[in-house]
Design brief:
heterodimer, A: mainly beta, seven-stranded mixed sheet, globular, B: mainly beta, four-stranded antiparallel sheet, about 0% helix
Chain lengths: ~120, ~120
């Protein structure tokens, strides 16, 4: 296992409420990612981070924000949750500086979010 | 970004070799081929990756054609626990000097492998 912990693992929330998902890593990896997975769409990148306070958008970033104040934590926030954000969210980490031959990305176990 | 094409589903008998193909005809010279799998309700699991040479580890072998336009993941002795969705991914890397580098993986739909008793 890659030392990635996601919390909460399961959450049900109401439309319009803010939600924050946390990803914590113990590997001291530089890069962290948030993906969502939906039937028929596979895994899609939401946001990623290449260092503390350095983040960038992925392909489905609308409605999401992220923050990374420490190397080990990457937070994903839904400011006002909508039903379309019901999904499984995966955090991932990598570190190209340590693995120049391939930069393997490792995934967490997922957070199941239901917006009702 | 290089795209990959995989069959939607495949079946394999337990104990037999499972050969999962992937086409990546637009791959660039510095892009790696990665394989991941995802067992139901779990996070994607890294299997193997390669650039141009064939690779083998404790889980699988990766065969990349000489022109690098396709590859095959081989599970030598498939078990029921190998039933999963297998993703072939080409690494997309963009390097920004100021920040050092950024890295993304583009996932497709994958191949649903069912290992039958």
């Amino acid at each position: 296992d890659a030392g990635i912990t996601q919390s909460p693992r399961h959450k049900v929330t109401e439309t319009g409420t803010p939600v924050t998902l946390r990803c914590h890593q113990t590997e001291n990896h530089r890069y962290m990612y948030w993906y969502r997975q939906d039937p028929g769409h596979g895994l899609r990148l939401i946001h990623y981070s290449y260092g503390v306070k350095d983040t960038d958008k992925g392909e489905v970033s609308d409605g999401y924000s992220v923050s990374r104040s420490k190397t080990e934590d990457f937070l994903l926030t839904l400011e006002s949750a909508t039903s379309s954000q019901t999904s499984v969210y995966f955090c991932a980490i990598s570190d190209i500086d340590r693995d120049p031959s391939g930069n393997t990305i490792y995934f967490g176990e997922g957070s199941w979010l239901t917006v009702v | 970004d290089a795209k990959t094409t995989q069959p939607t589903s495949m079946d394999c008998a337990e104990g037999r070799a499972a050969n999962l193909p992937c086409n990546h005809s637009t791959i660039s010279g510095n892009e790696y081929v990665y394989w991941y799998r995802q067992i139901h309700s779990q996070g994607p699991q890294y299997i193997i990756h390669g650039l141009k040479n064939n690779e083998t580890n404790e889980m699988a072998s990766l065969i990349i054609t000489e022109d690098r336009k396709s590859s095959t993941l081989i599970l030598p002795h498939a078990t029921l626990r190998d039933t999963a969705v297998y993703y072939c991914i080409v690494r997309v890397a963009t390097y920004i000097e100021a920040q050092g580098g950024s890295e993304k993986l583009v996932f497709g739909k994958g191949t649903k492998l069912t290992v039958n008793p």
